Rit1 DUSP-like domain-containing protein (Eutreptiella gymnastica), 226 residues
Amino acid sequence: RLFWKHRSWLLEPLIDAEECEARVLELVKAEGSKVCNGKVTDVMVLKAAQGLSTPVGCTGLHVAAVPALLQSTAAPQTFALLINCTSTDVPNHEGLASQYLHLPVPVGDKHRLERSLQRLLAAINDHLPHGPVCIACDTGTNVSACVCVAALVLLFTPEHVFVPVESVGPETVQAAGGTKARIKHCQMYVASSVPNACPDRNLTKQVNRFFLTSATHGAVNFAGAP
């Protein structure tokens, strides 16, 4: 519809492909859509998630508290994937997301997050190309924030642009360049997007071990979560 309405302006003989693309993005913005990382994200999807989740910048990642999800009346299929990291199931998940992954990560467990990150990151890698991914925990500010940090380190450029990997495994993690500085940068980005984020120290250490152990020793703890 937009193309036919503005085709003369979009296809002016003297403009090149780059200018044409810029005009398309300008039109989309004017029509009430939002452009993130060069991709158009329907504002209706973001509005449906408003109050239900908090977006992590324009990455497509969202964090949420499970109690809020249980009471949600959001539009169907708000997320491409909903990851629930609590022990409480979300029975209305079919109305919230196309896919659902229930993988409890107890805050006090000293190894569960580290052992679960491969599966969590693989799920994000597979589903984020199809729409927003929401990671939910008890508060939406603890486990969720740590998973987002890990996803940013492994699956995003330093400019926070999503670059999917072929598969999530030891070689991928080792190649991610998960240095202390890189992890810290991602932590700061999550904190700037989710001001009330308060990752538990124990969980933060597990994220660090997941990447730094791989970088130092060429191995990573990919034991399956019990």
Q: What stands out?
A: Residues 201-217 form the longest helix (17 residues). Residues 173 and 211 are 7 Å apart (CA to CA). The chain has a mean pLDDT of 81.
